[in-house]
Specification:
Carbamate kinase; two-stranded antiparallel sheet; EC 2.7.2.8; 39% helix; cytoplasm; alpha/beta; kinase; ATP binding; 286 residues
């Protein structure tokens, strides 16, 4: 490539990044990765580039991923129908085996390989590795669906100190060795709290928390945790967004400075949030 073909670096733009680099240097950035950004290959490439750049700029990204659509597709291939109760997948032993295969065997390995291709050390972890996510059965009617009792962050901290990017599958384990499906949003929040992350970023398939204004739906740019119950009571926050927002609020109340709910369908959405005070999604804060 000739010099005339190369893109010119904008020094002013780089200088504008200094306050954000200072703010997040050597800090954990917890990224919950899911939604369309996980299944669209170009978006996946951009997310990985964002994560790698964060690492090279001195941040400590930690990735926790879901994989619901991929699990559903794999179950359909073996002729098994998925059943959901209040957004949670009813999980028998066969479904649990498929979930582990998809989350740890397919998705995590793919993400680790992509990160490693940029010269960054990365490692895939299941929540059962090293007792990372200790869980118990949430409800017998749901089968192998777990509720988190404890996060053992020692393993993650050791990996961060060795310059790895951990990629964590949302699977938990109890003291008897039983494995459970864990809601990835819940796991992201609990891990962010335990790692004292100042920032938790939730990549989703929506622009943020939405509110109707006339004939249009608009993003609510900022939500104080004190406002959440009012929004739920008024029907602004509904359905599956309720547990997501409540989980984000718990993170903020227990030490995470800000939680961003952003649209993972947008190009380089992670970098856009980290290196700007003009947020396009919803920021949940105290």
């Amino acid at each position: 490539m000739s010099r005339t073909d190369q893109k010119k670096v904008n020094p002013e733009m780089l200088v504008e990044m200094i306050p954000f680099l200072r703010r997040y240097h050597k800090k954990v950035i917890l990224i919950k990765y899911g939604g369309n950004a996980m299944v669209n290959d170009e978006l996946k490439k951009q997310v990985i580039e964002d994560i790698v750049l964060m690492k090279y700029m001195g941040m400590y990204p930690v990735v926790i991923h879901g994989g619901g659509p991929e699990i559903t597709s794999m179950l359909e291939l073996i002729g098994k129908k998925s059943t959901f109760v209040e957004g949670l997948r009813v999980t028998d032993k066969e479904t649990m085996t498929v979930s582990e295969m998809v989350l740890s065997g397919k998705i995590a390995k793919d993400l680790v390989a992509r990160i490693s291709s940029y010269g960054i050390k990365s490692i895939g972890l299941s929540g059962q590795d090293g007792g990372l996510i200790v869980a118990e059965q949430k409800n017998p009617e749901l089968g192998y669906v777990g509720e988190i009792k404890k996060i053992n962050s020692e393993l993650i901290n050791k990996l961060l100190n060795e310059d790895f990017i951990p990629v964590i599958s949302s699977i938990g384990c109890d003291e008897n060795g039983n494995r459970y499906n864990i809601n990835a949003d819940e796991a992201a929040g609990k891990i962010a709290i335990e790692l004292n992350a100042p920032v938790q970023i939730m990549l989703t398939n929506i622009q943020g928390v939405m509110k109707s204004q006339g004939d249009e739906m608009k993003v609510i740019p900022r939500i104080n945790v004190k406002e959440i119950d009012v929004y739920i009571k008024d029907g602004v926050i509904t359905g599956g967004m309720i547990p997501k927002v409540k989980g984000c609020a718990e993170s903020v109340m227990k030490g995470v400075e800000k939680v961003y709910i952003i649209d993972g369908r947008k190009s380089h959405s992670l970098l856009s949030e980290i290196f700007s005070d003009l947020h396009e999604g919803t920021v949940i804060h105290k």
